[in-house]
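Before the break, one more example. Copy the sequence into your notebook; we will annotate it together after we see the structure.
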Amino acid sequence: MIHRFFCFIAILVLASQTFAAKSLGDAYAEKAKEVILIDYETGAVLYEKNADTLTNPSSMTKVITVLLAFQRLKDGRLSMQDKLMISPKAWKTGGSRMFLNPNTFVTVEELLHGIITVSGNDASVALAEGMSGTEENAADEMTAIAREYGATNTTLKNAHGLAAPGHLSTARDLALISRNLIKNFPEYYPLFKEKSYTYNKISQPNRNPLLGVTHLNADGLKTGMTDEGGYGLIGSAEKDGRRLILVINGLSSEKERATVSEQLLSWGFREFETVTLAKAYTPILQAPTWLGTEPTVDLIVGKDVSLTLSKDKKKEITLEAVYTSPIPAPLTQEQPVGNLIIHIPGQEDQQVPLLAAKAVDSVGPFQRVFAALKHIIWGHG
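Here is what the structure looks like once it is written out:
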């Protein structure tokens, strides 16, 4: 028979925010055209506004240029000390610059600093050409790697983000790409928190205004600006073991970008928290076995079950373990035997596989006959 075990836990409700909390988020984001704020660990969306609107990602494009380089470094196809030639095309690229000299050789490490810290368009072209032969080839590869990470609405035409027909992304895509960059390349991610960089005796500051906000402990990622799209930013900060990622675009000035991004990240840390409902490989309950050498088996989950929750209103969340009882032996370790269902008021149920904590052999022939007779006579095993 199907057995349902209920556990009622009074905790905070997931980020289908209450009216009051959402109104505050709306107030902070009012002046922005596109916004998304996500929890790094769980991927929960804490706030969004026009997050799927296609727009020019401006210099935030460079996060994807850097992502491609990080992948090449990890694969061994590129090293930090490789020297790449600066082409006349790279040298002539307008906008923000690292001030490279044409027909010279610059290391990958220097170019990465020039892209990440000072937003050099010349450095972006030079790195793209060095990796892929041409900037156009690199843009195609950047589009492909973005889509591998689920950023299916992103199409890139260059490595720097200057306006070009068809060069488009969304706030949601940029957040997803940034989350994967932080997760997959922790050895290189610290480059994003450098506050200044000097090359050719020219020192330039990082334009990310969040790096100077001490209470946020921000460490990335990239600003952007176009006349058409306004001022944008991909920001990330870590506080008390939690990391949030913010993408914001369409603001009217550097000052407005700094104020709104700080307000939204501070609000996210203040109003939400991540709660672990079940720990990986920690027994949740015991279930009886049928014809097993062990009368019971512990049921576990294979990974932490965590949700990012709003602090605005406490709700009752129901955890329901659903499995066939008794569970027939033999069982292998971590064999799926049912599901842990998470009921959240007003939201779609979530489910996580329940696993057998250890292997359980089946009993021998004599014991099987005895169990069968016992079941016939008394109705249980």
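The chain has two domains: 2-13+276-378, 32-251. The chain is about 30% helix and 30% strand. Try to locate both features in your own notes.
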